Amino acid sequence: MWLTSDYFSMAGMAAVVGCNGWGFCVATATLLLAVAGSNLYATAESLASPDTFAVNGSSGPGARTSATRRAGHSGCVDIEHFGGKGDGKTDNALVLTRLSDASTARAVKAGLPPMLCVIFDAGIYEFSSTWSYALPEALRSAVIIEGAGSGATILRFESDSGLNFTLHHPKQTLHMRGLTLVTNTSSGSGAALKITQTSCLGSFDQSTFSDITFEGLSGGQFWGVGADVVGLSGTAWHAVTAYGDTSFQHGIGIRIRGNNIDCGETNGYSIYHNITSGIFNQLSKGVVYDDFTQGITVTQSNFQNSQFGIWSPPETRGQNMQLNVSNSQFQVSDQAISLNSPINLGSYSNNTVLISSGKVGFSLGSSNINTVSGNTFAGVNYGSTPSAVGIDVSGTATMIAGNSFSALRCGYRFHPNALAGGSSANTFNATSPACSDRH
Q: Are 215 and 222 in contact (CB under 8 A)?
Protein backbone atom coordinates (compact mmCIF):
# COMPACT_ATOMS: atom_id res chain seq x y z
CA MET A 1 0.00 0.00 0.00
CA TRP A 2 1.09 3.55 -0.64
CA LEU A 3 1.17 5.61 2.53
CA THR A 4 0.79 9.25 1.62
CA SER A 5 2.08 12.04 3.76
CA ASP A 6 2.19 15.68 2.67
CA TYR A 7 0.95 16.63 -0.74
CA PHE A 8 1.39 19.89 -2.50
CA SER A 9 0.63 21.72 -5.72
CA MET A 10 3.28 22.19 -8.36
CA ALA A 11 2.98 23.53 -11.92
CA GLY A 12 -0.78 23.23 -11.79
CA MET A 13 -0.80 19.57 -10.82
CA ALA A 14 -0.96 17.52 -7.68
CA ALA A 15 2.05 15.65 -6.40
CA VAL A 16 2.71 13.54 -3.33
CA VAL A 17 5.53 12.69 -1.04
CA GLY A 18 4.98 9.06 -0.11
CA CYS A 19 6.35 5.61 0.58
CA ASN A 20 5.17 2.39 -1.01
CA GLY A 21 5.26 -1.27 -0.04
CA TRP A 22 8.77 -1.57 -1.44
CA GLY A 23 10.03 0.95 1.10
CA PHE A 24 10.83 3.47 -1.65
CA CYS A 25 10.02 7.07 -0.72
CA VAL A 26 10.04 9.88 -3.24
CA ALA A 27 8.13 12.91 -4.39
CA THR A 28 6.55 12.06 -7.70
CA ALA A 29 3.63 12.95 -9.88
CA THR A 30 2.27 9.42 -10.10
CA LEU A 31 1.64 8.55 -6.45
CA LEU A 32 -1.69 7.87 -4.80
CA LEU A 33 -3.80 10.78 -3.60
CA ALA A 34 -6.44 10.12 -0.98
CA VAL A 35 -9.50 12.21 -1.81
CA ALA A 36 -12.73 11.48 0.02
CA GLY A 37 -11.92 7.80 0.21
CA SER A 38 -11.18 7.46 -3.52
CA ASN A 39 -7.87 6.62 -5.18
CA LEU A 40 -6.39 8.66 -7.97
CA TYR A 41 -4.52 6.81 -10.67
CA ALA A 42 -2.21 8.04 -13.35
CA THR A 43 -3.45 7.00 -16.78
CA ALA A 44 -2.40 7.61 -20.37
CA GLU A 45 -4.66 10.62 -20.52
CA SER A 46 -3.61 12.08 -17.20
CA LEU A 47 0.06 11.64 -18.01
CA ALA A 48 -0.46 13.47 -21.28
CA SER A 49 -2.43 16.27 -19.60
CA PRO A 50 -0.86 17.63 -16.39
CA ASP A 51 -4.20 18.96 -15.12
CA THR A 52 -6.22 15.77 -15.52
CA PHE A 53 -6.45 12.95 -12.98
CA ALA A 54 -8.69 9.92 -13.01
CA VAL A 55 -10.61 8.97 -9.89
CA ASN A 56 -11.25 5.28 -9.41
CA GLY A 57 -14.75 4.50 -10.54
CA SER A 58 -15.30 7.90 -12.17
CA SER A 59 -16.21 8.60 -15.76
CA GLY A 60 -14.64 10.98 -18.20
CA PRO A 61 -11.10 11.42 -19.50
CA GLY A 62 -8.60 9.13 -17.87
CA ALA A 63 -11.13 7.20 -15.79
CA ARG A 64 -9.92 3.87 -14.44
CA THR A 65 -12.48 1.17 -15.20
CA SER A 66 -10.50 -2.08 -15.09
CA ALA A 67 -11.73 -4.50 -12.44
CA THR A 68 -8.31 -6.07 -12.24
CA ARG A 69 -6.69 -3.17 -10.38
CA ARG A 70 -5.11 -4.69 -7.28
CA ALA A 71 -4.66 -3.04 -3.91
CA GLY A 72 -1.33 -1.33 -3.42
CA HIS A 73 -0.82 -0.41 -7.06
CA SER A 74 -1.85 3.21 -6.79
CA GLY A 75 0.69 5.50 -8.29
CA CYS A 76 1.65 3.03 -11.01
CA VAL A 77 0.50 3.02 -14.61
CA ASP A 78 -1.22 -0.01 -16.14
CA ILE A 79 0.30 -0.71 -19.54
CA GLU A 80 -3.19 -1.37 -20.87
CA HIS A 81 -3.96 2.35 -20.54
CA PHE A 82 -1.44 2.95 -23.32
CA GLY A 83 -2.75 0.22 -25.58
CA GLY A 84 -0.77 -2.68 -24.20
CA LYS A 85 -2.45 -6.07 -24.18
CA GLY A 86 -1.68 -9.42 -22.63
CA ASP A 87 -3.29 -11.30 -25.48
CA GLY A 88 -0.13 -13.01 -26.76
CA LYS A 89 -0.39 -11.08 -30.05
CA THR A 90 -0.05 -7.33 -29.48
CA ASP A 91 3.53 -6.02 -29.56
CA ASN A 92 4.05 -4.20 -26.27
CA ALA A 93 7.59 -2.94 -26.91
CA LEU A 94 6.59 0.42 -28.42
CA VAL A 95 3.72 0.73 -25.95
CA LEU A 96 6.09 0.49 -23.00
CA THR A 97 8.34 3.09 -24.63
CA ARG A 98 5.42 5.52 -25.00
CA LEU A 99 4.46 4.93 -21.39
CA SER A 100 7.98 5.56 -20.10
CA ASP A 101 8.37 8.69 -22.24
CA ALA A 102 5.10 10.10 -20.94
CA SER A 103 6.04 9.37 -17.33
CA THR A 104 9.40 11.09 -17.78
CA ALA A 105 7.87 14.13 -19.48
CA ARG A 106 5.32 14.59 -16.73
CA ALA A 107 7.95 14.35 -13.99
CA VAL A 108 10.23 16.83 -15.77
CA LYS A 109 7.34 19.29 -16.17
CA ALA A 110 6.71 19.02 -12.44
CA GLY A 111 10.36 19.45 -11.60
CA LEU A 112 10.53 15.98 -10.06
CA PRO A 113 12.94 13.09 -10.60
CA PRO A 114 11.40 10.59 -13.03
CA MET A 115 10.15 7.30 -11.63
CA LEU A 116 8.83 4.60 -13.92
CA CYS A 117 6.20 2.36 -12.30
CA VAL A 118 4.37 -0.09 -14.57
CA ILE A 119 1.66 -2.65 -13.90
CA PHE A 120 1.16 -5.78 -16.00
CA ASP A 121 -2.05 -7.65 -15.28
CA ALA A 122 -2.42 -11.37 -15.92
CA GLY A 123 -1.73 -12.39 -19.51
CA ILE A 124 0.96 -13.03 -22.12
CA TYR A 125 2.61 -9.78 -23.18
CA GLU A 126 4.40 -10.10 -26.49
CA PHE A 127 7.62 -8.15 -27.16
CA SER A 128 9.08 -8.18 -30.65
CA SER A 129 12.47 -6.99 -29.45
CA THR A 130 14.63 -6.20 -26.44
CA TRP A 131 13.29 -3.30 -24.36
CA SER A 132 15.89 -0.91 -22.93
CA TYR A 133 15.50 1.93 -20.44
CA ALA A 134 18.15 4.24 -18.99
CA LEU A 135 17.52 6.29 -15.87
CA PRO A 136 18.76 9.89 -16.03
CA GLU A 137 22.22 10.67 -14.78
CA ALA A 138 22.82 12.11 -11.31
CA LEU A 139 19.22 11.82 -10.13
CA ARG A 140 17.77 9.60 -7.42
CA SER A 141 15.07 7.54 -9.03
CA ALA A 142 13.58 4.07 -9.39
CA VAL A 143 11.95 1.66 -11.79
CA ILE A 144 9.13 -0.54 -10.48
CA ILE A 145 7.64 -3.28 -12.66
CA GLU A 146 4.95 -5.47 -11.17
CA GLY A 147 2.88 -8.31 -12.50
CA ALA A 148 0.04 -10.42 -11.13
CA GLY A 149 2.40 -13.27 -10.22
CA SER A 150 5.01 -15.31 -12.06
CA GLY A 151 2.40 -17.89 -12.98
CA ALA A 152 -0.02 -15.27 -14.31
CA THR A 153 2.00 -12.51 -16.01
CA ILE A 154 4.33 -13.58 -18.82
CA LEU A 155 6.54 -11.24 -20.83
CA ARG A 156 7.43 -13.16 -23.98
CA PHE A 157 10.32 -11.93 -26.11
CA GLU A 158 10.90 -12.80 -29.75
CA SER A 159 14.56 -11.96 -29.18
CA ASP A 160 17.46 -13.46 -27.26
CA SER A 161 17.53 -10.51 -24.82
CA GLY A 162 14.64 -9.23 -22.71
CA LEU A 163 14.70 -6.17 -20.41
CA ASN A 164 17.84 -4.03 -20.31
CA PHE A 165 18.20 -1.31 -17.65
CA THR A 166 21.03 1.19 -17.17
CA LEU A 167 21.40 3.08 -13.89
CA HIS A 168 23.61 6.13 -13.49
CA HIS A 169 23.42 6.96 -9.78
CA PRO A 170 24.02 4.91 -6.58
CA LYS A 171 20.54 5.84 -5.31
CA GLN A 172 18.82 4.56 -8.43
CA THR A 173 17.08 1.23 -7.89
CA LEU A 174 15.09 -1.40 -9.72
CA HIS A 175 12.20 -3.37 -8.23
CA MET A 176 10.43 -6.25 -9.98
CA ARG A 177 7.79 -8.63 -8.73
CA GLY A 178 5.37 -11.25 -10.05
CA LEU A 179 6.63 -11.85 -13.61
CA THR A 180 7.91 -14.58 -15.92
CA LEU A 181 10.38 -13.59 -18.64
CA VAL A 182 10.30 -16.04 -21.55
CA THR A 183 12.41 -16.22 -24.69
CA ASN A 184 10.90 -17.60 -27.86
CA THR A 185 14.23 -17.97 -29.66
CA SER A 186 16.68 -20.85 -29.74
CA SER A 187 19.93 -18.83 -29.83
CA GLY A 188 20.12 -18.53 -26.04
CA SER A 189 22.88 -15.94 -25.93
CA GLY A 190 21.39 -12.86 -24.28
CA ALA A 191 20.00 -12.01 -20.85
CA ALA A 192 16.37 -12.04 -19.80
CA LEU A 193 17.17 -9.18 -17.43
CA LYS A 194 20.35 -7.11 -17.63
CA ILE A 195 21.09 -4.34 -15.15
CA THR A 196 24.13 -2.12 -15.54
CA GLN A 197 25.16 0.44 -12.93
CA THR A 198 27.64 3.05 -14.21
CA SER A 199 28.09 4.83 -10.86
CA CYS A 200 29.38 2.04 -8.65
CA LEU A 201 29.58 1.80 -4.88
CA GLY A 202 28.87 4.98 -2.90
CA SER A 203 25.85 5.22 -0.61
CA PHE A 204 23.51 2.97 -2.56
CA ASP A 205 19.95 1.80 -1.98
CA GLN A 206 18.74 -1.78 -2.37
CA SER A 207 17.09 -3.21 -5.48
CA THR A 208 14.59 -6.03 -4.99
CA PHE A 209 13.37 -8.93 -7.11
CA SER A 210 10.62 -11.28 -5.95
CA ASP A 211 8.56 -14.05 -7.58
CA ILE A 212 10.45 -13.82 -10.87
CA THR A 213 10.88 -16.72 -13.29
CA PHE A 214 13.30 -16.98 -16.23
CA GLU A 215 12.61 -19.71 -18.76
CA GLY A 216 12.30 -20.67 -22.42
CA LEU A 217 9.11 -21.33 -24.28
CA SER A 218 7.77 -24.75 -23.23
CA GLY A 219 11.18 -25.61 -21.77
CA GLY A 220 12.68 -25.85 -25.24
CA GLN A 221 15.00 -22.86 -24.99
CA PHE A 222 16.64 -20.76 -22.32
CA TRP A 223 18.33 -17.41 -22.11
CA GLY A 224 22.10 -17.16 -22.06
CA VAL A 225 21.62 -15.64 -18.59
CA GLY A 226 18.48 -15.19 -16.53
CA ALA A 227 19.65 -12.10 -14.62
CA ASP A 228 22.94 -10.40 -15.52
CA VAL A 229 24.00 -7.87 -12.85
CA VAL A 230 26.85 -5.53 -13.83
CA GLY A 231 28.20 -3.07 -11.27
CA LEU A 232 24.97 -2.84 -9.27
CA SER A 233 25.33 -3.24 -5.51
CA GLY A 234 22.71 -4.11 -2.93
CA THR A 235 20.32 -6.62 -4.48
CA ALA A 236 17.81 -8.96 -2.86
CA TRP A 237 16.47 -11.95 -4.81
CA HIS A 238 13.56 -13.85 -3.26
CA ALA A 239 11.69 -16.78 -4.81
CA VAL A 240 13.45 -16.45 -8.15
CA THR A 241 13.28 -19.46 -10.49
CA ALA A 242 15.56 -20.14 -13.44
CA TYR A 243 14.33 -23.13 -15.42
CA GLY A 244 16.65 -24.15 -18.24
CA ASP A 245 16.14 -26.10 -21.41
CA THR A 246 16.04 -29.83 -22.02
CA SER A 247 19.78 -30.06 -22.67
CA PHE A 248 20.40 -29.58 -18.91
CA GLN A 249 23.67 -27.89 -19.90
CA HIS A 250 22.82 -24.42 -21.15
CA GLY A 251 22.47 -21.01 -19.53
CA ILE A 252 23.09 -19.30 -16.20
CA GLY A 253 20.50 -18.42 -13.58
CA ILE A 254 22.04 -15.29 -11.99
CA ARG A 255 25.43 -13.80 -12.83
CA ILE A 256 26.91 -11.03 -10.66
CA ARG A 257 29.97 -9.01 -11.67
CA GLY A 258 31.51 -5.61 -11.15
CA ASN A 259 31.80 -2.80 -13.66
CA ASN A 260 35.48 -1.92 -13.88
CA ILE A 261 34.98 -0.42 -17.34
CA ASP A 262 32.81 2.49 -16.17
CA CYS A 263 33.95 2.65 -12.55
CA GLY A 264 37.60 1.56 -12.61
CA GLU A 265 39.14 -1.37 -10.77
CA THR A 266 39.10 0.35 -7.35
CA ASN A 267 35.44 1.37 -7.29
CA GLY A 268 34.08 -1.04 -9.85
CA TYR A 269 33.01 -3.71 -7.36
CA SER A 270 29.53 -5.13 -7.06
CA ILE A 271 28.79 -5.91 -3.40
CA TYR A 272 26.01 -7.04 -1.04
CA HIS A 273 23.77 -9.57 -2.77
CA ASN A 274 21.27 -11.88 -1.08
CA ILE A 275 19.58 -14.82 -2.82
CA THR A 276 16.88 -16.65 -0.85
CA SER A 277 14.35 -19.35 -1.75
CA GLY A 278 15.65 -19.68 -5.28
CA ILE A 279 15.23 -22.63 -7.65
CA PHE A 280 17.88 -23.24 -10.30
CA ASN A 281 17.06 -26.19 -12.52
CA GLN A 282 18.38 -27.64 -15.81
CA LEU A 283 21.13 -25.06 -16.29
CA SER A 284 24.80 -24.98 -17.02
CA LYS A 285 25.33 -22.94 -13.84
CA GLY A 286 22.90 -21.72 -11.22
CA VAL A 287 24.77 -18.71 -9.77
CA VAL A 288 27.99 -17.26 -11.19
CA TYR A 289 30.31 -15.26 -8.92
CA ASP A 290 32.31 -13.22 -11.46
CA ASP A 291 34.91 -10.42 -11.59
CA PHE A 292 35.09 -7.61 -9.00
CA THR A 293 32.44 -9.05 -6.70
CA GLN A 294 32.25 -9.19 -2.91
CA GLY A 295 29.55 -10.46 -0.60
CA ILE A 296 27.06 -12.98 -2.03
CA THR A 297 24.78 -14.89 0.31
CA VAL A 298 22.74 -17.86 -0.93
CA THR A 299 20.31 -19.53 1.45
CA GLN A 300 17.29 -21.85 1.37
CA SER A 301 17.72 -22.48 -2.34
CA ASN A 302 17.66 -25.54 -4.60
CA PHE A 303 20.11 -26.43 -7.36
CA GLN A 304 18.95 -29.43 -9.36
CA ASN A 305 19.64 -31.17 -12.68
CA SER A 306 22.31 -28.70 -13.74
CA GLN A 307 26.03 -29.04 -14.37
CA PHE A 308 27.14 -26.71 -11.56
CA GLY A 309 25.34 -25.07 -8.68
CA ILE A 310 27.52 -22.06 -7.75
CA TRP A 311 30.50 -21.38 -9.99
CA SER A 312 33.34 -18.88 -10.38
CA PRO A 313 35.29 -18.74 -13.65
CA PRO A 314 39.06 -19.18 -13.90
CA GLU A 315 41.24 -16.09 -13.61
CA THR A 316 38.60 -13.75 -12.26
CA ARG A 317 39.81 -10.21 -11.61
CA GLY A 318 39.64 -8.30 -8.35
CA GLN A 319 39.83 -9.20 -4.68
CA ASN A 320 36.76 -11.41 -4.61
CA MET A 321 35.60 -12.58 -1.20
CA GLN A 322 32.73 -13.39 1.12
CA LEU A 323 30.59 -16.16 -0.31
CA ASN A 324 28.11 -17.56 2.22
CA VAL A 325 25.98 -20.58 1.31
CA SER A 326 23.58 -22.15 3.80
CA ASN A 327 20.50 -24.32 4.19
CA SER A 328 20.40 -25.21 0.50
CA GLN A 329 20.14 -28.41 -1.51
CA PHE A 330 22.34 -29.51 -4.40
CA GLN A 331 22.02 -32.37 -6.85
CA VAL A 332 23.94 -31.52 -10.00
CA SER A 333 25.92 -33.55 -12.51
CA ASP A 334 29.31 -31.99 -11.76
CA GLN A 335 30.17 -29.85 -8.72
CA ALA A 336 27.73 -28.21 -6.31
CA ILE A 337 30.20 -25.38 -5.63
CA SER A 338 33.07 -24.92 -8.06
CA LEU A 339 35.48 -22.07 -7.31
CA ASN A 340 37.98 -21.88 -10.14
CA SER A 341 39.41 -18.63 -8.79
CA PRO A 342 39.92 -17.73 -5.13
CA ILE A 343 36.93 -16.42 -3.20
CA ASN A 344 38.28 -15.86 0.31
CA LEU A 345 36.38 -15.68 3.59
CA GLY A 346 33.75 -18.24 2.67
CA SER A 347 31.18 -19.95 4.88
CA TYR A 348 29.29 -23.10 3.85
CA SER A 349 26.87 -24.53 6.38
CA ASN A 350 23.86 -26.81 6.78
CA ASN A 351 23.55 -27.77 3.12
CA THR A 352 22.55 -31.13 1.65
CA VAL A 353 24.83 -32.17 -1.22
CA LEU A 354 24.22 -35.24 -3.39
CA ILE A 355 27.34 -36.00 -5.46
CA SER A 356 27.54 -37.95 -8.71
CA SER A 357 30.09 -40.70 -9.24
CA GLY A 358 33.64 -39.42 -9.60
CA LYS A 359 32.70 -35.80 -8.86
CA VAL A 360 33.37 -33.37 -6.00
CA GLY A 361 30.71 -31.70 -3.84
CA PHE A 362 32.48 -28.48 -2.79
CA SER A 363 35.57 -27.69 -4.85
CA LEU A 364 36.94 -24.63 -3.05
CA GLY A 365 40.16 -24.46 -5.04
CA SER A 366 42.72 -22.00 -3.71
CA SER A 367 40.22 -19.97 -1.68
CA ASN A 368 41.54 -19.05 1.76
CA ILE A 369 39.98 -18.80 5.23
CA ASN A 370 36.84 -20.90 4.87
CA THR A 371 34.51 -22.69 7.24
CA VAL A 372 32.60 -25.78 6.09
CA SER A 373 30.27 -26.99 8.82
CA GLY A 374 27.09 -28.93 9.45
CA ASN A 375 26.65 -30.14 5.86
CA THR A 376 25.51 -33.56 4.63
CA PHE A 377 27.48 -35.01 1.70
CA ALA A 378 26.26 -38.24 0.08
CA GLY A 379 27.35 -40.12 -3.03
CA VAL A 380 24.71 -41.19 -5.56
CA ASN A 381 24.76 -43.38 -8.66
CA TYR A 382 28.19 -44.75 -7.78
CA GLY A 383 27.76 -48.40 -8.74
CA SER A 384 29.60 -50.94 -6.59
CA THR A 385 32.35 -48.63 -5.36
CA PRO A 386 31.89 -45.02 -4.14
CA SER A 387 34.14 -42.67 -6.08
CA ALA A 388 33.02 -39.13 -5.23
CA VAL A 389 34.75 -36.67 -2.88
CA GLY A 390 32.92 -34.40 -0.46
CA ILE A 391 35.26 -31.39 -0.21
CA ASP A 392 38.40 -30.50 -2.15
CA VAL A 393 40.68 -27.77 -0.76
CA SER A 394 43.99 -26.30 -1.86
CA GLY A 395 43.77 -22.91 -0.11
CA THR A 396 44.97 -21.88 3.32
CA ALA A 397 43.10 -21.98 6.64
CA THR A 398 39.98 -24.00 5.89
CA MET A 399 38.13 -25.60 8.81
CA ILE A 400 35.93 -28.65 8.14
CA ALA A 401 33.76 -29.45 11.16
CA GLY A 402 30.55 -31.21 12.07
CA ASN A 403 29.78 -32.56 8.61
CA SER A 404 28.28 -35.93 7.68
CA PHE A 405 29.85 -37.90 4.81
CA SER A 406 28.21 -40.99 3.32
CA ALA A 407 28.98 -43.34 0.42
CA LEU A 408 32.00 -41.38 -0.81
CA ARG A 409 35.54 -42.32 -1.67
CA CYS A 410 36.59 -39.86 1.00
CA GLY A 411 35.08 -37.02 2.94
CA TYR A 412 37.67 -34.34 2.17
CA ARG A 413 40.91 -33.83 0.36
CA PHE A 414 43.58 -31.29 1.38
CA HIS A 415 46.17 -30.59 -1.30
CA PRO A 416 49.85 -30.09 -0.32
CA ASN A 417 49.57 -26.30 -0.32
CA ALA A 418 46.43 -26.33 1.84
CA LEU A 419 48.20 -24.97 4.91
CA ALA A 420 46.76 -24.36 8.36
CA GLY A 421 43.60 -26.35 7.63
CA GLY A 422 41.86 -28.65 10.05
CA SER A 423 38.91 -30.91 10.71
CA SER A 424 36.91 -32.05 13.70
CA ALA A 425 33.68 -33.75 14.79
CA ASN A 426 32.81 -35.08 11.33
CA THR A 427 31.02 -38.40 10.82
CA PHE A 428 31.71 -40.96 8.09
CA ASN A 429 29.46 -43.70 6.74
CA ALA A 430 31.02 -46.06 4.19
CA THR A 431 33.52 -43.28 3.58
CA SER A 432 37.20 -42.78 4.35
CA PRO A 433 37.78 -39.56 6.29
CA ALA A 434 40.61 -38.10 4.21
CA CYS A 435 41.70 -39.10 0.72
CA SER A 436 44.90 -41.10 0.59
CA ASP A 437 46.14 -38.81 -2.17
CA ARG A 438 46.12 -35.87 0.22
CA HIS A 439 49.84 -35.35 -0.35
A: yes
